[in-house]
From TrEMBL:
Record key words, sorted: Acyltransferase, Endoplasmic reticulum, Lipid biosynthesis, Lipid metabolism, Membrane, Transferase, Transmembrane, Transmembrane helix
Pfam families in alphabetical order: DAGAT
GO biological process, one term: monoacylglycerol biosynthetic process
Designated name of the protein: Acyltransferase
Organism: Sarcophilus harrisii
EC code: 2.3.1.-
MF terms (GO), sorted A to Z: 2-acylglycerol O-acyltransferase activity; diacylglycerol O-acyltransferase activity
InterPro entries assigned to the protein according to its UniProt record, in alphabetical order: DAGAT (IPR007130)
Entry similarity comment: Belongs to the diacylglycerol acyltransferase family.
Source taxonomy: Eukaryota, Metazoa, Chordata, Craniata, Vertebrata
Length: 327
Protein backbone atom coordinates (compact mmCIF):
# COMPACT_ATOMS: atom_id res chain seq x y z
CA UNK A 1 0.00 0.00 0.00
CA UNK A 2 1.27 3.45 -0.89
CA UNK A 3 1.40 6.13 1.76
CA UNK A 4 -0.50 9.39 1.12
CA UNK A 5 2.85 11.17 0.71
CA UNK A 6 3.94 8.66 -1.94
CA UNK A 7 0.63 9.00 -3.80
CA UNK A 8 0.88 12.80 -3.85
CA UNK A 9 4.49 12.66 -5.01
CA UNK A 10 3.56 10.33 -7.87
CA UNK A 11 0.66 12.55 -8.95
CA UNK A 12 2.90 15.63 -8.95
CA UNK A 13 5.57 13.83 -10.98
CA UNK A 14 2.99 12.81 -13.58
CA UNK A 15 1.50 16.30 -13.72
CA UNK A 16 5.03 17.62 -14.26
CA UNK A 17 5.40 15.36 -17.31
CA UNK A 18 1.95 16.17 -18.71
CA UNK A 19 2.20 19.95 -18.35
CA UNK A 20 5.74 19.95 -19.69
CA UNK A 21 4.63 17.90 -22.68
CA UNK A 22 1.65 20.14 -23.41
CA UNK A 23 2.63 23.65 -22.35
CA UNK A 24 6.35 24.13 -21.70
CA UNK A 25 7.23 25.08 -25.27
CA UNK A 26 4.39 27.58 -25.59
CA UNK A 27 5.06 29.08 -22.16
CA UNK A 28 8.73 29.84 -22.77
CA UNK A 29 8.12 31.08 -26.32
CA UNK A 30 5.63 33.62 -24.98
CA UNK A 31 7.86 34.47 -22.01
CA UNK A 32 10.87 35.26 -24.20
CA UNK A 33 8.71 37.45 -26.42
CA UNK A 34 7.23 39.25 -23.40
CA UNK A 35 10.63 39.91 -21.82
CA UNK A 36 11.76 41.74 -24.96
CA UNK A 37 9.47 44.61 -23.92
CA UNK A 38 10.61 44.78 -20.31
CA UNK A 39 13.77 45.78 -18.48
CA UNK A 40 14.80 42.12 -18.68
CA UNK A 41 15.02 42.22 -22.50
CA UNK A 42 18.68 41.21 -22.31
CA UNK A 43 17.69 37.74 -21.04
CA UNK A 44 15.74 37.06 -24.23
CA UNK A 45 18.55 38.44 -26.37
CA UNK A 46 21.16 36.31 -24.62
CA UNK A 47 19.05 33.18 -25.06
CA UNK A 48 18.37 33.92 -28.74
CA UNK A 49 22.12 34.34 -29.31
CA UNK A 50 22.66 31.01 -27.56
CA UNK A 51 19.93 29.44 -29.70
CA UNK A 52 21.65 30.66 -32.87
CA UNK A 53 25.04 29.29 -31.77
CA UNK A 54 23.54 26.00 -30.58
CA UNK A 55 21.11 25.52 -33.50
CA UNK A 56 22.76 22.39 -34.98
CA UNK A 57 23.36 20.55 -31.69
CA UNK A 58 20.17 18.42 -31.91
CA UNK A 59 21.33 17.07 -35.29
CA UNK A 60 24.74 16.23 -33.85
CA UNK A 61 23.64 13.76 -31.21
CA UNK A 62 22.09 16.28 -28.86
CA UNK A 63 23.30 17.05 -25.35
CA UNK A 64 22.25 14.54 -22.71
CA UNK A 65 22.81 14.78 -18.99
CA UNK A 66 22.88 11.55 -17.04
CA UNK A 67 21.78 13.38 -13.88
CA UNK A 68 18.57 14.35 -15.72
CA UNK A 69 17.98 10.76 -16.88
CA UNK A 70 18.49 9.59 -13.29
CA UNK A 71 16.27 12.30 -11.78
CA UNK A 72 14.33 10.90 -8.82
CA UNK A 73 11.05 12.28 -10.18
CA UNK A 74 11.13 9.68 -12.98
CA UNK A 75 10.97 6.87 -10.43
CA UNK A 76 7.78 8.35 -8.99
CA UNK A 77 6.48 8.80 -12.54
CA UNK A 78 7.20 5.10 -13.17
CA UNK A 79 5.50 3.97 -9.98
CA UNK A 80 2.27 5.89 -10.65
CA UNK A 81 1.11 3.52 -13.43
CA UNK A 82 3.40 1.46 -12.87
CA UNK A 83 5.66 1.16 -15.95
CA UNK A 84 7.83 -1.93 -16.52
CA UNK A 85 10.59 -2.80 -18.99
CA UNK A 86 10.76 -6.43 -20.17
CA UNK A 87 13.86 -7.77 -21.89
CA UNK A 88 13.44 -10.81 -24.14
CA UNK A 89 16.91 -11.03 -25.71
CA UNK A 90 20.40 -9.59 -25.44
CA UNK A 91 21.46 -6.59 -27.50
CA UNK A 92 25.23 -7.04 -27.87
CA UNK A 93 27.05 -3.68 -27.70
CA UNK A 94 29.27 -4.51 -30.69
CA UNK A 95 26.71 -3.18 -33.17
CA UNK A 96 24.05 -0.50 -33.59
CA UNK A 97 20.26 -0.82 -33.47
CA UNK A 98 17.05 0.76 -34.72
CA UNK A 99 14.25 0.15 -32.23
CA UNK A 100 10.72 0.61 -33.55
CA UNK A 101 8.47 1.54 -30.64
CA UNK A 102 4.69 0.99 -30.74
CA UNK A 103 2.08 2.26 -30.12
CA UNK A 104 2.53 6.02 -30.06
CA UNK A 105 -0.43 6.65 -27.76
CA UNK A 106 -1.15 10.20 -26.64
CA UNK A 107 2.06 11.06 -24.78
CA UNK A 108 4.37 8.05 -25.30
CA UNK A 109 4.63 7.60 -21.53
CA UNK A 110 6.04 4.06 -21.63
CA UNK A 111 8.57 4.82 -24.36
CA UNK A 112 9.77 7.99 -22.64
CA UNK A 113 10.05 6.37 -19.23
CA UNK A 114 12.04 3.37 -20.45
CA UNK A 115 14.32 4.95 -23.07
CA UNK A 116 14.65 8.62 -22.08
CA UNK A 117 15.15 7.96 -18.36
CA UNK A 118 16.94 5.36 -16.26
CA UNK A 119 14.01 4.76 -13.93
CA UNK A 120 13.72 1.15 -15.12
CA UNK A 121 17.46 0.63 -15.45
CA UNK A 122 17.80 0.45 -19.23
CA UNK A 123 21.60 0.72 -19.04
CA UNK A 124 21.69 -2.14 -16.51
CA UNK A 125 19.45 -4.41 -18.55
CA UNK A 126 21.24 -3.57 -21.80
CA UNK A 127 24.84 -2.75 -20.81
CA UNK A 128 26.83 -0.89 -23.43
CA UNK A 129 23.74 0.30 -25.33
CA UNK A 130 23.12 4.06 -25.55
CA UNK A 131 19.50 4.90 -26.46
CA UNK A 132 18.48 7.99 -28.44
CA UNK A 133 14.74 8.54 -28.44
CA UNK A 134 13.80 10.30 -31.70
CA UNK A 135 11.16 13.03 -31.52
CA UNK A 136 9.41 15.40 -33.90
CA UNK A 137 12.09 17.63 -35.46
CA UNK A 138 10.04 20.80 -34.90
CA UNK A 139 10.24 20.34 -31.12
CA UNK A 140 13.97 21.04 -31.25
CA UNK A 141 13.30 24.54 -32.60
CA UNK A 142 11.17 25.51 -29.59
CA UNK A 143 13.06 27.74 -27.10
CA UNK A 144 14.06 26.16 -23.77
CA UNK A 145 11.90 23.09 -24.42
CA UNK A 146 14.55 21.87 -26.89
CA UNK A 147 17.20 21.99 -24.15
CA UNK A 148 14.92 20.19 -21.74
CA UNK A 149 14.21 17.24 -24.04
CA UNK A 150 17.82 17.00 -25.23
CA UNK A 151 18.86 16.53 -21.60
CA UNK A 152 17.15 13.13 -21.60
CA UNK A 153 18.84 11.96 -24.79
CA UNK A 154 16.21 12.92 -27.36
CA UNK A 155 17.22 13.77 -30.91
CA UNK A 156 15.23 14.82 -34.01
CA UNK A 157 13.67 12.08 -36.12
CA UNK A 158 15.38 13.40 -39.25
CA UNK A 159 17.77 11.69 -41.64
CA UNK A 160 20.63 14.03 -40.78
CA UNK A 161 20.24 13.45 -37.05
CA UNK A 162 19.81 9.67 -37.15
CA UNK A 163 22.60 9.21 -39.71
CA UNK A 164 24.92 11.13 -37.40
CA UNK A 165 24.13 8.84 -34.44
CA UNK A 166 24.48 5.59 -36.37
CA UNK A 167 27.52 6.52 -38.49
CA UNK A 168 29.87 7.40 -35.62
CA UNK A 169 32.81 5.22 -34.62
CA UNK A 170 31.24 4.22 -31.30
CA UNK A 171 29.06 1.10 -31.46
CA UNK A 172 26.17 0.27 -29.18
CA UNK A 173 24.09 3.21 -30.40
CA UNK A 174 20.33 2.59 -30.47
CA UNK A 175 17.86 5.01 -32.01
CA UNK A 176 14.30 4.54 -30.75
CA UNK A 177 11.71 5.61 -33.33
CA UNK A 178 7.97 5.89 -32.72
CA UNK A 179 7.30 4.57 -36.19
CA UNK A 180 3.57 5.34 -36.28
CA UNK A 181 4.14 8.95 -35.31
CA UNK A 182 1.33 11.47 -35.07
CA UNK A 183 -0.97 9.44 -37.29
CA UNK A 184 -0.86 6.49 -34.89
CA UNK A 185 -1.90 8.72 -31.99
CA UNK A 186 -5.31 9.05 -33.68
CA UNK A 187 -5.77 5.32 -33.14
CA UNK A 188 -4.73 5.46 -29.47
CA UNK A 189 -8.13 4.40 -28.19
CA UNK A 190 -8.41 2.12 -25.11
CA UNK A 191 -8.81 -1.51 -26.12
CA UNK A 192 -7.53 -0.99 -29.66
CA UNK A 193 -4.17 -2.13 -31.01
CA UNK A 194 -3.88 -0.50 -34.42
CA UNK A 195 -0.42 0.38 -35.77
CA UNK A 196 0.44 2.78 -38.57
CA UNK A 197 3.05 0.59 -40.20
CA UNK A 198 2.01 -0.67 -43.64
CA UNK A 199 3.64 2.23 -45.51
CA UNK A 200 6.21 3.28 -42.92
CA UNK A 201 9.49 2.01 -44.34
CA UNK A 202 11.93 4.84 -43.72
CA UNK A 203 13.18 3.28 -40.48
CA UNK A 204 13.94 0.03 -42.36
CA UNK A 205 15.87 1.95 -45.01
CA UNK A 206 17.80 3.69 -42.23
CA UNK A 207 18.70 0.34 -40.64
CA UNK A 208 19.89 -1.06 -43.98
CA UNK A 209 22.05 1.97 -44.77
CA UNK A 210 23.95 1.48 -41.51
CA UNK A 211 23.66 -2.27 -41.01
CA UNK A 212 21.83 -1.61 -37.73
CA UNK A 213 19.74 -4.51 -36.43
CA UNK A 214 15.99 -3.89 -36.22
CA UNK A 215 14.34 -4.41 -32.83
CA UNK A 216 10.53 -4.47 -32.33
CA UNK A 217 9.21 -2.85 -29.14
CA UNK A 218 5.62 -2.85 -27.88
CA UNK A 219 4.19 -0.97 -24.88
CA UNK A 220 1.10 -2.76 -23.60
CA UNK A 221 -1.26 -0.39 -21.79
CA UNK A 222 -0.08 2.77 -23.56
CA UNK A 223 -3.47 3.34 -25.19
CA UNK A 224 -5.31 2.85 -21.91
CA UNK A 225 -3.94 5.79 -19.88
CA UNK A 226 -6.26 8.29 -21.60
CA UNK A 227 -9.75 8.14 -23.08
CA UNK A 228 -9.84 9.58 -26.59
CA UNK A 229 -12.68 10.70 -28.81
CA UNK A 230 -12.36 8.54 -31.92
CA UNK A 231 -13.69 9.72 -35.28
CA UNK A 232 -14.29 7.36 -38.17
CA UNK A 233 -12.27 7.51 -41.36
CA UNK A 234 -13.98 9.89 -43.76
CA UNK A 235 -15.73 11.93 -41.07
CA UNK A 236 -15.24 15.70 -41.12
CA UNK A 237 -13.58 15.56 -37.71
CA UNK A 238 -10.97 13.04 -38.89
CA UNK A 239 -10.46 15.08 -42.07
CA UNK A 240 -9.70 18.17 -39.98
CA UNK A 241 -7.33 16.21 -37.75
CA UNK A 242 -5.47 14.83 -40.77
CA UNK A 243 -5.23 18.26 -42.41
CA UNK A 244 -3.90 19.81 -39.18
CA UNK A 245 -1.34 17.01 -38.86
CA UNK A 246 -0.02 17.61 -42.39
CA UNK A 247 0.47 21.31 -41.67
CA UNK A 248 1.74 21.23 -38.08
CA UNK A 249 3.32 17.76 -37.87
CA UNK A 250 1.17 16.51 -34.96
CA UNK A 251 -2.46 15.48 -34.62
CA UNK A 252 -4.91 17.44 -32.42
CA UNK A 253 -6.34 14.56 -30.38
CA UNK A 254 -9.32 15.11 -28.09
CA UNK A 255 -8.50 13.18 -24.92
CA UNK A 256 -9.07 13.20 -21.18
CA UNK A 257 -8.01 11.32 -18.10
CA UNK A 258 -8.93 11.52 -14.45
CA UNK A 259 -9.19 14.65 -12.34
CA UNK A 260 -8.54 15.48 -8.70
CA UNK A 261 -11.68 17.51 -8.08
CA UNK A 262 -13.66 16.72 -11.23
CA UNK A 263 -14.46 13.30 -12.75
CA UNK A 264 -12.21 14.14 -15.71
CA UNK A 265 -8.93 16.00 -16.21
CA UNK A 266 -5.39 15.76 -17.60
CA UNK A 267 -4.09 13.23 -15.09
CA UNK A 268 -3.59 9.86 -16.85
CA UNK A 269 -5.37 6.81 -15.53
CA UNK A 270 -3.02 4.64 -13.39
CA UNK A 271 -3.03 1.72 -15.82
CA UNK A 272 0.03 -0.59 -15.88
CA UNK A 273 2.30 -0.11 -18.93
CA UNK A 274 4.64 -2.94 -19.90
CA UNK A 275 7.25 -2.18 -22.56
CA UNK A 276 8.56 -5.38 -24.14
CA UNK A 277 11.81 -5.23 -26.11
CA UNK A 278 11.88 -8.00 -28.71
CA UNK A 279 14.63 -9.99 -30.37
CA UNK A 280 16.91 -8.17 -32.81
CA UNK A 281 16.48 -8.84 -36.53
CA UNK A 282 19.88 -9.12 -38.29
CA UNK A 283 20.20 -6.53 -41.05
CA UNK A 284 23.05 -6.32 -43.60
CA UNK A 285 24.73 -3.04 -44.42
CA UNK A 286 23.51 -1.64 -47.73
CA UNK A 287 24.56 2.00 -48.33
CA UNK A 288 22.04 2.17 -51.18
CA UNK A 289 19.35 -0.44 -50.41
CA UNK A 290 17.01 -1.49 -53.20
CA UNK A 291 13.25 -1.28 -52.77
CA UNK A 292 13.09 -5.07 -52.78
CA UNK A 293 15.48 -5.23 -49.82
CA UNK A 294 13.51 -2.58 -47.95
CA UNK A 295 10.27 -4.48 -48.56
CA UNK A 296 11.85 -7.75 -47.46
CA UNK A 297 13.05 -6.46 -44.10
CA UNK A 298 9.90 -4.43 -43.58
CA UNK A 299 7.92 -7.66 -43.92
CA UNK A 300 10.25 -9.41 -41.45
CA UNK A 301 9.75 -6.55 -39.01
CA UNK A 302 5.96 -6.64 -39.29
CA UNK A 303 6.01 -10.38 -38.61
CA UNK A 304 8.30 -9.81 -35.61
CA UNK A 305 6.14 -7.12 -34.00
CA UNK A 306 3.04 -9.25 -34.52
CA UNK A 307 4.77 -12.28 -32.99
CA UNK A 308 5.96 -10.17 -30.04
CA UNK A 309 2.40 -8.96 -29.45
CA UNK A 310 0.95 -12.47 -29.56
CA UNK A 311 3.60 -13.90 -27.21
CA UNK A 312 3.09 -11.31 -24.48
CA UNK A 313 -0.48 -10.03 -24.79
CA UNK A 314 -2.09 -12.40 -22.26
CA UNK A 315 0.54 -11.78 -19.58
CA UNK A 316 -0.07 -8.04 -20.08
CA UNK A 317 -3.85 -8.27 -19.65
CA UNK A 318 -4.90 -8.29 -23.31
CA UNK A 319 -7.67 -10.68 -24.36
CA UNK A 320 -6.49 -13.79 -26.26
CA UNK A 321 -8.98 -12.93 -29.03
CA UNK A 322 -7.35 -9.51 -29.62
CA UNK A 323 -4.91 -9.15 -32.51
CA UNK A 324 -2.83 -6.38 -34.02
CA UNK A 325 -4.19 -4.49 -37.00
CA UNK A 326 -2.11 -2.44 -39.43
CA UNK A 327 -2.99 0.66 -41.43
Amino acid sequence: MKTPKKQITEILSVYQFVFTFLFMGLFFSLLLFFLLFTSFWFLSVLYLVWLYVDWDTPDRGGRRFECFRNWKVWEHFRDYYPIKLVKTAELPPNRNYVLGSHPHGIMCAGTFCNFATESNGFSRQFPGIRPFLAGLAGLFRVPVYRDYIMSSGLCPVSRESLDFVLSGPQLGQAVVILVGGANESLYGVPGEHCLTLLNRKGFVRLALRHGAFLVPVYSFGENEIFTQASFGTGSWQRTLQTAFKKIMGFAPCIFWGRGLLLPWGLLPFPVPITTVVGRPIPVPRRPNPSQAEVDQYHKLYMEAIERLFEEHKESCGVSPSTHLTFV
